[in-house]
Structures are given as C-alpha cells and as structure tokens.
User: Fold this.
Amino acid sequence: MEQGIALPIMEEFYSLQGEGFHTGKAAYFLRIGGCDVGCSFCDTKESWDANRHPLVLVDNVINNILQSSATTVVITGGEPCLYNLSYLCQEVAKHKIVLHLETSGSEKLSGNWNWICFSPKRKTIIQPEFYQKANELKVIVEESIDLLWAEENAEKINKKCELFLQPEWSQRETILPLIVNYILLHPKWKISLQSHKYMRIP
Assistant:
C-alpha cells in the first residue's frame, strides 16, 4: 500500500455525482476503505475499517474504469488521503480522465487532482494545504453551530473556492429551512443536496 499499487477498495461503481458543484454529472466512483475521522452522521460507517476491505491492484481498478463510459473519476472514502494516491492518479491521467478527490483534509494531500472537494469536520486536525488547494468547500450542517464552523473555514479558504452548505441527511427536514435562510443572508454560499439519495441511485 505504501507505493499505492494496491488499495483497500470498499466499492466501485459508475453513477451520477449527487452532491456539490458537479451534481448531476456522470462519474466513476472509487470508495477506499479506512477513515481516521469517524463522523457520527457518516452514512458509510462500513468504510472506516480498512481491514474489512480487500487490497485490489490499481491496474485492475483502472481496467474497470475503462470499461465504463466515464470521463471523470471520483475518489472518496473513508478518507482516501490515508494512502499514497500518486500511482492511481498517474495511471488514470494517462487516459485523459478527469480526477476528483473528496477528502476531510485530515491527512496530507497525495496525488494530482483536477478537482478537490474539501469537507472539514469539527474536532479534527486539518492539514492547512487544503485551504489553498481546494476547489470546493462543502460543510455538512447537522445543527446550527455548524454554520459557525463553515464560516471559520470560509475565512481561510482561497478566493476561487466554491462554497457549499449541505444538510446532514437524517436532519434534512429540520435543518434545511435554516440553511435556506442562512444562504439568503449570506449569498456567497450555495446549497448542496444529496440528490442521489432522492433519486435512489448509488
């Protein structure tokens, strides 16, 4: 795993991006097992323990990607930056496929990316480099205090970064009106919804 030629793959599938800036776009998703954050509201807790997921050769994963129609690959987790992602990025890029990373920013950045979605979590040590390199800041809002956390991060983020507030799924009915009103007062933010869940697709 140190060289990144094999990774603990939880799942891989071709679907539509359901969240954030690229909502609605077709993408091949690669979910890597292992997480050092452990959010209480995580909807993929089965990804946390890397030992539960088999090591898969990256070359085999790339063959799977090429069998789809994907022009974009999204690497998610867990926390994918726990691993060396340089080989994966290098090999995928050879096929002129766009690479997106979804990360909490808890680990140092690995690999070369066309788009970085940075979703920092409270009570987690954040690697400062993500504030300069992120293309998208996506803050999950479970309660009103998360709006303060969102603003703390927005103050540090680069000026070109897109800003999103996303309701935590189980609290969406309660928290959605709060987010809507907040964005009306603070229009630098946009709303992100987990549209794939509404559509009942992966």
Remarks:
- The mean pLDDT is 95.
- The first helix runs from residue 58 to 67.
- The chain has one domain: 6-199.
- The CA atoms of residues 108 and 169 lie 28 Å apart.
